């Protein structure tokens, strides 16, 4: 399969979950992948997996909270593989699940750094490299949490809302360079899902039942192919879009009110 033959991609947070699923799909489709991941053990493991799949891969330890690290991961694509065609901004650093009134400035700063700022830094670093290749694909990540106003995620919702605005701005302004910019709003069985499934009885079954398709998403089988589409020539006339890849969860939405919080407080 060669939908991404001779393409070079940087994927942040590719050491696990959705990032790993996308990286594996990209390797199968012929792309060279920079595995931009902060965890050295998982990053090295994914690099090994991609090579076993017949792909080209390079692990670059990347803390997306640091501008220099993000820029370094983007430069690594040129140093290792000669250029950059696809940028996938997937990584983020979660903050504690607490109510809006209990969120601290430090929590907000951390979340904005790992969502908005990390995406901003990577996109600006990628621009000259993509222009040199005659165009490119930018794939950012948002969340259904933004749409439902998910409780205890006020900082995350703010950061992901900003990423959507940035994505649309890039689509409008960088189309003149033959660069598309789109966002994915996914839900899948990543690390957080498996943690909750292990800790909360019935969580996995309830999560699957909430989706019209009746199952939870697989990072590689369900999210990865959409990222392949957005990174390939198949999506050459698609830009500024947000694609829900969530088994239809965005249709009914969900209620995230914690059970301990009363409906009315005065």
From TrEMBL:
Keyword terms: Oxidoreductase, Plasmid
InterPro entries (UniProt xref): NAD(P)-bd_dom_sf, Sc_DH/Rdtase_CS, SDR_fam
GO molecular-function terms, A-Z: oxidoreductase activity
PROSITE patterns referenced in this protein's UniProt entry, alphabetically: ADH_SHORT
UniProt EC number: 1.1.-.-
Family matches, as Pfam families: adh_short_C2
SUPFAM superfamilies for this protein: NAD(P)-binding Rossmann-fold domains
Gene3D superfamilies: NAD(P)-binding Rossmann-like Domain (3.40.50.720)
Family: Belongs to the short-chain dehydrogenases/reductases (SDR) family.
Protein name in the entry: SDR family oxidoreductase
